[in-house]
């Protein structure tokens, strides 16, 4: 699936002012709760994400879970992180994207070879 030049321009914050403003707004919201962008991926929605999370080191997954719990706690209390902690947050430091690309590449390779998928969605 090829991405057009227009789509690349539209989503590139360094070239498109609107994309930069959107990136800035998302960053501000994530900093308020101490989250990273990769924390927003739901492993129940996409099984590739679930597999990528399973392959990550335990410390990385534990830190993700801790950030999510803290964000839920702050949200329930209608509070935000203190300003001094918001400054320290790195919302766009990725920890999941490399592993997710690898998992998607492996899945595509398996499909191309005609092998059975490693995991399938089942109805609970």
TrEMBL record:
Keywords: Electron transport, Membrane, Mitochondrion, Mitochondrion inner membrane, Respiratory chain, Transport
Compartments it resides in: Mitochondrion inner membrane
Pfam family, one: UCR_14kD
GO biological process: mitochondrial electron transport, ubiquinol to cytochrome c
Main localization (coarse): mitochondrion
UniProt keyword annotation of Ligase present: no
Protein purpose: Component of the ubiquinol-cytochrome c oxidoreductase, a multisubunit transmembrane complex that is part of the mitochondrial electron transport chain which drives oxidative phosphorylation.
Protein known as: Cytochrome b-c1 complex subunit 7
């Amino acid at each position: 699936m090829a991405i057009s030049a227009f789509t690349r321009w539209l989503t590139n914050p360094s070239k498109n002012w609107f994309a930069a403003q959107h990136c800035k707004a998302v960053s501000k919201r994530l900093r308020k709760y101490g989250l990273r962008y990769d924390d927003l991926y739901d492993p129940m929605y996409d099984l590739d994400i679930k597999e990528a999370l399973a392959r990550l080191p335990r410390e990385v997954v534990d830190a993700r879970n801790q950030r999510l719990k803290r964000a839920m706690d702050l949200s329930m209390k209608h509070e935000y992180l203190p300003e001094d902690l918001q400054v320290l947050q790195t919302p766009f430091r990725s920890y999941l994207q490399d592993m997710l690309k690898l998992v998607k590449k492996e899945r595509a390779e398996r499909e191309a070879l005609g092998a059975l998928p490693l995991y399938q969605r089942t109805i609970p």
